[in-house]
Input
Amino acid sequence: MTTSPASALEALLPDLGRRTLVMGILNVTPDSFSDGGRFQDPEAARAQGARLVEEGAALLDVGGESTRPGHSPVSAEEEQARVLPVIAALAPALAVPVSIDTYKAATAEAALRAGARIVNDVWGLQREPEIAAVAAHHGAPVVVMHNRESVDAGLDIVDEMRRFFERSLVIARRAGIADRDIVLDPGIGFGKSWEQHLEALRRLPELRALGFPVLVGVSRKSVLGRIHNAATAPADRLFGSIAAHVVAAARGADIVRVHDVRPHVEACQVVDAITRRPGA
Output
């Protein structure tokens, strides 16, 4: 009896599906909504990346352009100037894979050459579809996030996500990316009303039923602030972040994307102990 070779995603994340994985966020930007500017210096970024892995991150997501509401887009050249030194330093030194958080094909290409192993696209391969061919060429798995240019509160948000992901899957498959190297992300905090964010989390099992691993990122986002205190600073939303990710993990999320790694690792261990059968 022969077994099929592991996919690129399985090779990079062998525990995927067996436990909830925590993705550590490393923003090397001056204007991120939560920690803008703190890790813009390459040395500070490298130290933070190493710390997140020490705390239990199973992968590290490096981004060089803020995607917060009202952000100012940056050129691919500026984005690369921010992320490439950090990726080049961290990727060979860490025992976990680095992903590049970008929708730009040129930045994905440069980051993969620098040592990144995964492409995390907040526009689901649809802003610059050639990014799919870049990922395929490098054998890199992709995270496909749902997004919209504008909010339409009248949509059934899960049906909208299904249609969006169908378009993304066509792009990925045409480029040669295998389904088993694709992760779906409902895009909490992007292109949805407050109610739709909550609905997307509530109905996460319907998204999981599409047959792909699911990544959820709610860390420190304003959707949480509206629930308990709209004036709360992003860095003070730890408890709400943990609660949202615990619910997401219990409802089928395979990966949670967070700023605060250690508390989430411990919280997800409890969720997994309760909800996942040993050896699953």
Observations:
- The beta strands are 21-27, 59-63, 98-101, 118-121, 142-145, 182-185, 215-216, 255-258.
- The two ends are 22 Å apart (CA to CA).
- The chain is about 45% helix and 10% strand.
- The longest strand covers residues 21-27.
